[in-house]
C-alpha cells in the first residue's frame, strides 16, 4: 500500500520540494542578475545598439579607427612588458619564499604585503611612486645628488614609467598566484633526481621546469589580464592624456556633449571583455593542465 | 657529503638574497611615502606637520573630502559585509545540502567578477545606478555597497568555500535539525561557530577591497576614501601621502591577521587525517 501512495504522491511532492529548495537561492541569483549579469549585458548589447534602439556597428567601427587601435596596442604593450617583468621577478621570489616555513612571520608578512600591493594598492601605489620618482621623490634626489643623474620630469606619465609602476603590483601578484605551484614542488623529486645522478641544472630543466611551465604561463596570462584591466594607478598618475583603454572609457563616460559617446564607452568595454575573456580562458586551460601535478 | 652541505648553504644564502632584494623593492616606495609625508618639498626641512593636521589640528576645511570619504568607506564596508554574508552564506550552505548540482553555477558566478574589469563593470552599472538614484534611493555614496558586494564576491567565496569544505556541513545540520533546532538556530549556533575562521577571512579581505576601491566610486562620482585622498592630494599632498601609507599599512595588518586565522583553520583537518 505504501508503494501505491508513494507512486502517486512523490512526483508532485518532489516538484514542490525542488521548487521550494530553489526558492531559497533566489535572493542570491536575483542580486547577481541585477548587479553582475545586467551590467555585463548592458555593455555587450549596448556596443551594438544605436541611440534609437536599432542594431548598429558604429561603436565597433570606432574601435577599429587608428586612434583607438593605438590605445589598445599601447595597453597591450604595457600589460605584456609589466607581465613579463613581474612573472620573472615574482616567479623567482615566489620560489625563494616557498622554501620559508609556512608559519614563519617572514612568510606571513611577505604574502600580506604582496596581496595588499597586488590587489588593493591602486591610487596609493601611484602616490608612493610620486614620492619615489616624482619631482621631489626620494630616488630622484638620491640619483641627482649622488650620481648627477636627472630623472626625466615626465617619467611617471610616460609609457615606460607606467610599465615601471605596474611592475610594482605585478611582482607581488606573481608571488601570490605562483606560490601554490612552487609550494607543490616536492623534495622527493629533487632527491630522486640526485639519486639518479642528475645535477641541479638537470632538476630544473628536466623535472621542475616542465612541471612548473603551465602554472608559469598561466600566471603570466593572469598578470597580463590584471594590467589590462588596471585603471586606478594610471588615473592617479596621468590626468591629461589618454594612454590606455580604461582611460578612454572614462573619457567617453564623462563626455556629456556627445551622447553617442555612451555607445563608444560600451564598445570599448566590450572590446576589453573580449581581450580579458580570451586571456582568462587561456589561464583556465593552463591551470587545468597544471593541476595534474599540484594535486 | 660536505659538498652537498656547502651547496645547500649556498642555495639558502641565494634564496635569502632574492627575498631581501625583492623585499627592499617592495618596501622602498612605502618608505618613500613616509619620507614624503614629513619633508617639505621646497626647503627639505622635516616636520610631522602633515600628521598633526591629519589628526585634527586645524585645517579641517581642506581635509573635508578625506573625512567624508573615510566615513563613507567605513559605512560602505559595514553594508557590503552585511549584504555579502546575508546573500552568500545561506546560499552556499543550502546549495551544498540540497542542490549540489548548482554548486558549479554558484562557483562560476562568484568567480566571474575576477575576469570582469571594474572599469567594464562600471560602464554597465551607470544606467543601473541612474535608476537607483532617481527612482529608488538617492545618490549617497553608501549605495556603492551594491556594486562592492560583487567585487568582494570572489574573495569571500573562496574563504567561505575553504571553511565549509573543512567541516561536515551535512552531518552538523542533520544532527541539529533532528534535535529540533530551527534553521536560524542551525546557522547561528551550529554553523557559524564552526566557520569563525572562514567568516573572519572573508570579512578581512572584503574590508581591504572596499577601503582600496577607486574605479567605481570615481566613475559614478561618489565620494569614498580613495577619491577623497585623490582630491586632498591636490591641496595637501603630504597629508595624502600620510593617509595612503596608513591605509596600506592597515591593509597589510588585516591580511597578516588573516594569515594567522587561515593557517590555524587549515591545520585542523590535516591533523585529523594523519
TrEMBL record, chain A:
Domain of life of the source: Bacteria
Sorted UniProt keywords: Cell membrane, Membrane, Transmembrane, Transmembrane helix, Transport
Location of this chain's protein in the cell: Cell membrane
Record GO biological process: transmembrane transport
Membrane-spanning residues: 28-48, 69-97, 109-132, 163-182, 203-225, 263-286
Cellular component aspect of the GO annotation: plasma membrane
Domain ABC transmembrane type-1: 72-285
InterPro entries xref list: MetI-like (IPR000515), MetI-like_sf (IPR035906)
Membrane topology: Multi-pass membrane protein
Pfam families: BPD_transp_1 (PF00528)
Assigned protein family: Belongs to the binding-protein-dependent transport system permease family. CysTW subfamily.
PANTHER family according to UniProt: INNER MEMBRANE ABC TRANSPORTER PERMEASE PROTEIN YDCU-RELATED, INNER MEMBRANE ABC TRANSPORTER PERMEASE PROTEIN YDCU-RELATED-RELATED
Name this polypeptide is given: ABC transporter permease
The species this protein was found in: Tessaracoccus lapidicaptus
UniProt lineage: Bacteria, Bacillati, Actinomycetota, Actinomycetes, Propionibacteriales
From TrEMBL, chain B:
Keywords per UniProt: Cell inner membrane, Cell membrane, Membrane, Transmembrane, Transmembrane helix, Transport
Main location: membrane
GO cellular component: plasma membrane
Keyword Transmembrane: yes
Localization annotation: Cell inner membrane; Cell membrane
Gene Ontology biological process terms, A to Z: transmembrane transport
CDD domains linked to this entry: TM_PBP2
Record has Cell inner membrane as a keyword: yes
Membrane topology: Multi-pass membrane protein
Domain annotation ABC transmembrane type-1: ranges: 70-258
TM segment ranges: 12-34, 74-97, 109-129, 141-160, 198-221, 241-262
Family to which the UniProt record says this protein belongs: Belongs to the binding-protein-dependent transport system permease family.
Protein name per the record: ABC transmembrane type-1 domain-containing protein
Organism: Tessaracoccus lapidicaptus
Amino acid at each position: 500500500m505504501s508503494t501505491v501512495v508513494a507512486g502517486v504522491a512523490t512526483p508532485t511532492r518532489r516538484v514542490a520540494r525542488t521548487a521550494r529548495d530553489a526558492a531559497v537561492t533566489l535572493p542570491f541569483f536575483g542580486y547577481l542578475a541585477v548587479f553582475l549579469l545586467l551590467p555585463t549585458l548592458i555593455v555587450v548589447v549596448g556596443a551594438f545598439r544605436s541611440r534609437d534602439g536599432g542594431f548598429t556597428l558604429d561603436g565597433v567601427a570606432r574601435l577599429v579607427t587608428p586612434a583607438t587601435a593605438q590605445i589598445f596596442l599601447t595597453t597591450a604593450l604595457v600589460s605584456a612588458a609589466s607581465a613579463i617583468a613581474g612573472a620573472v621577478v615574482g616567479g623567482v621570489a615566489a620560489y625563494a619564499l616557498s622554501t620559508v616555513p609556512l608559519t614563519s612571520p617572514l612568510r606571513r608578512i611577505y604574502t600580506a604585503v604582496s596581496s595588499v600591493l597586488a590587489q588593493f594598492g591602486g591610487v596609493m601605489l601611484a602616490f608612493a611612486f610620486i614620492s619615489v620618482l616624482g619631482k621631489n621623490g626620494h630616488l630622484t634626489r638620491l640619483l641627482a645628488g649622488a650620481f648627477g643623474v636627472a630623472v626625466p620630469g615626465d617619467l611617471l606619465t610616460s609609457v615606460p614609467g607606467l610599465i615601471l609602476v605596474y611592475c610594482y603590483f605585478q611582482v607581488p601578484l606573481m608571488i601570490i598566484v605562483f606560490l601554490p605551484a612552487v609550494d607543490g614542488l616536492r623534495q622527493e623529486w629533487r632527491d630522486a633526481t640526485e639519486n639518479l645522478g642528475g645535477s641541479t641544472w638537470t632538476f630544473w630543466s628536466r623535472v621542475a621546469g616542465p612541471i612548473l611551465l603551465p602554472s608559469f604561463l598561466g600566471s603570466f596570462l593572469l598578470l597580463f589580464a590584471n594590467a589590462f584591466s588596471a585603471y586606478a594607478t594610471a588615473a592617479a598618475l596621468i590626468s591629461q592624456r589618454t594612454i590606455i583603454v580604461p582611460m578612454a572609457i572614462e573619457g567617453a563616460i564623462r563626455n556629456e556633449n556627445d551622447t553617442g559617446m555612451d555607445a563608444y564607452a560600451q564598445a570599448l568595454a566590450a572590446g576589453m571583455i573580449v581581450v580579458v575573456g580570451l586571456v582568462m580562458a587561456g589561464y583556465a586551460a593552463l591551470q587545468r593542465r597544471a593541476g595534474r601535478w599540484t594535486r | 657529503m660536505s659538498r652537498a652541505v656547502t651547496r645547500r648553504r649556498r642555495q639558502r644564502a641565494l634564496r635569502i638574497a632574492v627575498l631581501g632584494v625583492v623585499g627592499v623593492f617592495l618596501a622602498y616606495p612605502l618608505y618613500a611615502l613616509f619620507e614624503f609625508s614629513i619633508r617639505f618639498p621646497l626647503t627639505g626641512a622635516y616636520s610631522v606637520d602633515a600628521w598633526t593636521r591629519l589628526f585634527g589640528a586645524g585645517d579641517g576645511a581642506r581635509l573635508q573630502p578625506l573625512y567624508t570619504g573615510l566615513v563613507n568607506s567605513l559605512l560602505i564596508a559595514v553594508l557590503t559585509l552585511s549584504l555579502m554574508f546575508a546573500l552568500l552564506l545561506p546560499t552556499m550552505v543550502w546549495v551544498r545540502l540540497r542542490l549540489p548540482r548548482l554548486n558549479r553555477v554558484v562557483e562560476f558566478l562568484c568567480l566571474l567578477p575576477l575576469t570582469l574589469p571594474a572599469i567594464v563593470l562600471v560602464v554597465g552599472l551607470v544606467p543601473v545606478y541612474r535608476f537607483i538614484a532617481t527612482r529608488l534611493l538617492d545618490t549617497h555614496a553608501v549605495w556603492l555597497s551594491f556594486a562592492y558586494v560583487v567585487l568582494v564576491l570572489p574573495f569571500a567565496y573562496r574563504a567561505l568555500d575553504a571553511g565549509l569544505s573543512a567541516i561536515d556541513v551535512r552531518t552538523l545540520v542533520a544532527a541539529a535539525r533532528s534535535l529540533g533546532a530551527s534553521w536560524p538556530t542551525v546557522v547561528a549556533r551550529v554553523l557559524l561557530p564552526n566557520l569563525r575562521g572562514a567568516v573572519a577571512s572573508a570579512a578581512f579581505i572584503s574590508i581591504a577591497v572596499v577601503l582600496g576601491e577607486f574605479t567605481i566610486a570615481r566613475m559614478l562620482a561618489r565620494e569614498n576614501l580613495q577619491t577623497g585622498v585623490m582630491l586632498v592630494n591636490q591641496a595637501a599632498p603630504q597629508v595624502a601621502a600620510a593617509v595612503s601609507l596608513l591605509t596600506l599599512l592597515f591593509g597589510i595588518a588585516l591580511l597578516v591577521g588573516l594569515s594567522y586565522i587561515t593557517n590555524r583553520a587549515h591545520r585542523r583537518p590535516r591533523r585529523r587525517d594523519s
